Amino acid sequence: MAQHRKDTITPKLKKLATYSSGRFLSGFVSFFGWVLAIVPHCVFLVFVKSLGLLMYQLDNKNRYNDAKTNLDFIYGDTLTPEQKKEIIKRCYQNFAFVILESIRVTNIPYHKHQKRFEVIDEHYLLECLDSKGSAVLISGHFGYWEAMATFLPPRYRKCQMASLGRLTGIDSVDSLIISRREFQGVKFINKAGAFKHLLRLYSGGNALAGILTDQSMNKSEGIEVEFMGKKATHTPIASILSRRFGVGIVPVFIDFDESYSKFVVRFFPAIFAPHTQDSSADILQATQAQANITAHAIQTNPKSWFWFHRRWKEFYTDLY
C-alpha cells in the first residue's frame, strides 16, 4: 500500500516541479525582457557582447571546432586563421543577440521595432501574393532570422501565416519558443510532422509560411544538392509546395549592422518549381536554386551565417 501511494505521488511531484520551474522561467524571461527593452541600446549591446564572450569561453569547443571545420572546408587557405577566428567569435555574438533580442522583442512596440528595418525588393513577394494569393518564404540561420516572425507578419495580414521550427522537448523552453514565434499572429508548426499541416494550410489559400532551409537533413528526408561547392542535403518541402500549388518560393535574408541596431531585409526573385512529367527533376531544380541563393547570401557576408551547424555531415562523414 505504501509503495502504491509513493508511486502515485512521485509523478504528481514531478509534474508540480515542472510546472513551477516553467512558471519561474517564464516570469524571469518576461522581467528580463522588459529590462532589456527599456535600457539604452549601448547597454543592451554590453549584454550581447558579454553573453557572446561567455558562450565563447564556456563552450566545450564542440561548436568552435565545428565552425572552424566548416570554414576550413569551404574557404581553405583563402581566409587566414585570424579571419576564421574572427568569424567564429562573431557567430557567438550573433547567437547571443538573437537570444536576447528574442527575449525582449515582445516588449518593444511595433511602431518602434519596424523603424529599425530597411526593406529592399519586397515587390518580389507582393507580386507572388497578388498573382497566386500564397507564397513560401525561405531563409536560413543568417543575420536576424527570427525577424521573419517578429517584423514581417504585420505587413501581410491578409495571409494565413505559419513559421516552422524545431522544439527542444523541454516544455518550459518550448513554450517560450512558441510564444515568441506566435506573438505577431503567426502559427508555429513543429518541423516534426510539419508537411501535413502545410498541405492543409496551402489547400485553404492565402498561405504564407516561413521556412529555414539551411540545415543538414538525413538522406532519407532531404535531397542532394550542391551547396557552396560541396555536396549536401536540402529540404525539398518548399519545392514540393511550389509544384503542388503553383506558388512562388521567395528567398529573404535579414542582415544586421555591426551594432545590431539596423537591419536590412532583402527579398530575391521568386523560384517556381517546374511542373513536368518528371517530378523528381522538377523538385531538384527548385531546391538547387534555393541552395544557390542561400550560398550567395552567405558568401556576401560570411560573418552573418550560423557556422556552427554540421551542414555537410551526410556526405562527408569524417569531417566532424
Polypeptide structure, described:
By secondary structure, the chain is of the alpha/beta class. The chain has eleven helices and nine strands. The protein has a seven-stranded mixed β-sheet, sandwiched between helices. Helix 8 links the parallel strand 3 (160-165) and strand 4. Helix 2 packs across helix 4. The radius of gyration is 21 Å and the shape is globular. The model has no long low-confidence stretch (mean pLDDT 92).
Looking at this protein, list some descriptive labels.
two-stranded antiparallel sheet; single chain
- Our measurement of the CA-to-CA distance between the termini, rounded to an integer number of angstroms, reads 53 Å
Q: Bin the strand percentage.
A: 15-25%
Number of strands: 9
Mean pLDDT level:
92
Q: What is the string of SSEs from the N terminus onward?
A: HHHHHEHEHEHEHEEEHEEH
SS class: alpha/beta
Give Rg in angstroms: 21 Å
Helix content: 40-55%
* Main sheet strand line-up: 1-9-8-2-5-3-4
Task: Give me the number of helical elements.
Answer: 11
Main sheet makeup: 7 strands, mixed
Low-confidence stretches: none
Apparent shape:
globular
